[in-house]
Specification:
By secondary structure, the chain is of the alpha/beta class. It is built from 11 helices and 8 strands. Strands 3-2-4-1-5-6-7-8 form an 8-stranded mixed sheet, sandwiched between helices. Strand 5, helix 9 and strand 6 form a beta-alpha-beta unit. Helix 7 packs parallel to helix 8. The longest helix has 17 residues. It is elongated, with a radius of gyration of 22 Å. The N and C termini lie close together (9 Å). The site of guanosine-5'-diphosphate has 17 residues, from helix 5.
Length: 297
């Protein structure tokens, strides 16, 4: 990378100091200025950065510097630990009901976020786990979306349920669940319609599905490349319809992934998976420690 990473910057801030004694307030404040800049550059939400810096500061000031570490490494360790904790510490699995019951998952998100692709990617994961997923085309506004789901479903060897574009999404969802129960599918994944922007009718449509169908998990798909917008979108969806988890796509791009840090902090919901490319196999589980390393650089 052409730019100096945050880790390198911190090492440099502390270069002049000996690796002994305690971290002083002045040292810590100096280092945290760099951390703050780097986090803002990585598109972490401003409020999240403020709280984060405060909490690292409290933990770092007065810490004994272990003789095996430089002060820079000490601060990096504290920053790293706080980031991991902010993102929920451990990897979170999508909650599924037992195999003899039908788990309904509603996928939602703005147009272009990667929802339809991610839906097919997820189906592949469930298939690997020995489940029998059914993909459901609830996006009745974009005929291309139905076709796209069918093509991707076929690639994954997963069935796709569609009723064309002449029915309400809630009715398609109901019919799909009936179809699933008759044909032994145990994970029903609803690919709902996105819009270019947050929009009342989209939210109403999602609420209607939630109110009439036993949705076990509502999963939001957001584009990591959109940075702060991804965080705002997550906050809106969570407050309007309530989400259970987030999938962050396009992390194969050149974003640092600061959205990952903010989304968890702002919504309280875990990131479940990350999209790492356009191929249907490019979906990985989300590990907070790996993401912290990526943001730290
Ligand atoms: P939707 O409108 O939300 O259903 O979005 P699509 O699933 O149609 O995806 C929009 C575009 O993003 C497509 O070109 C996808 O191939 C691409 N895409 C989806 N996920 C990823 C990802 O993780 N990485 C990259 N590089 N592209 C992705």
């Amino acid at each position: 990378m052409a730019f100096e990473s945050l880790s390198e910057k911190l090492q440099n801030v502390f270069k002049g100091l000996k690796g002994k004694g305690k971290l002083t307030e002045a040292d810590v404040k100096l280092a945290l200025k760099e951390v703050k800049m780097a986090l803002l550059e990585a598109d972490v939400n401003f409020k999240v950065v403020k709280n984060f810096i405060k909490s690292v500061e409290e933990k770092a000031i007065g810490q004994d510097v272990m003789s095996s570490l430089t002060p820079g490494q000490m601060v990096i360790n504290i920053v790293n630990k706080e980031m991991v904790s902010l993102m929920g510490d451990e990897m979170t699995e999508i909650s599924l009901k037992p195999s003899n019951e039908i788990t309904v998952i509603m996928m939602c998100g703005l147009q272009g976020a990667g929802k339809t692709t991610t839906t097919a990617k997820l189906a592949g994961k469930f298939k690997q786990k020995g489940r029998k997923p059914l993909l459901v085309a609830c996006d009745v506004y974009r005929p291309a979306a139905i076709k796209q789901l069918q093509v991707n479903g076929e690639k994954q060897g997963v069935s796709v349920f569609s009723m064309g574009d002449g029915h309400k999404p809630v009715n398609i969802a109901k019919a799909a669940i009936e179809h699933a129960s008759k044909n032994d599918f145990n994970v029903v994944i609803l690919d709902t319609a996105g819009r270019l922007h947050i929009d009342e009718s989209m939210m109403e449509e999602l609420m209607e599905i939630k109110q009439n169908v036993d949705v076990h998990q509502s999963i939001l798909v957001v584009d990591a490349m959109t940075g702060q917008d991804a965080v705002n979108v997550s906050e809106m969806f969570n407050s309007k319809i309530g989400i259970d988890g987030v999938i962050l796509t396009k992390l194969d791009g050149d974003t640092r992934g600061g959205a990952a840090l903010s989304i968890r902090a702002v919504t309280g919901r875990p990131i479940l998976y990350i999209g790492m490319g356009e191929k249907l196999s490019d979906l990985e589980q989300f590990y907070p420690d790996r993401m912290a390393s990526r943001i730290l650089g």
